[in-house]
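User: I'm putting together notes for a lab meeting next week and I want to include a structural view of one of the chains we've been expressing. I don't have a solved structure, so I'd like a prediction I can at least talk through. The sequence is below, exactly as it appears in our construct file.
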Amino acid sequence: MSLHELTANTIDGKPQPLSAWKGKVVLVVNTASQCGYTPQYDGLEKLYEEYKDKGLVVAGFPSNDFGAQEPGTEAEIKTFCSTKFNVKFPMFAKVKTKGDGQSPVYRFLSTEHGVPQWNFHKYLVGKDGKVKKAFKSGVAPESKELRAAIDAALAE
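Assistant: Thanks for the context. Below is the predicted structure for the 156-residue chain, given as structure tokens.
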């Protein structure tokens, strides 16, 4: 199984085959608009802008699983992300990251690397569609640890 075998709905409700990302490194993040980690949107956008031409995709999956910190609709989330943080990386429809109704994307991501424990948990997926590493919420987008892992994945 690989991430490339899955499809997820974009924040606009359109199916997006993740096979479009074959040969790219993907950073999948469960996001929330009312979380203490919400300012990470800024760092994620900077990371995306810096690395997108090198082959990195940042993919945001809003989730209301932790502290009910993403209560909005997809339209509200999209407006929030674009107006507050100028987010241009791909955003998807709200998903369940754990438990009953867990999205297929998160079922795949968490199989070997565990379910997220909070918002802004990050999974780094290699060019082959396999999860390379997971990062807890407190690992900021600008952290040396995350950037080193991205650089290594891009070099493969």
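A couple of points you could mention at the meeting. Residues 3-155 form a domain with the Glutaredoxin fold (CATH 3.40.30.10). DSSP finds four helices and six strands in the chain.

User: Perfect, that's what I needed.
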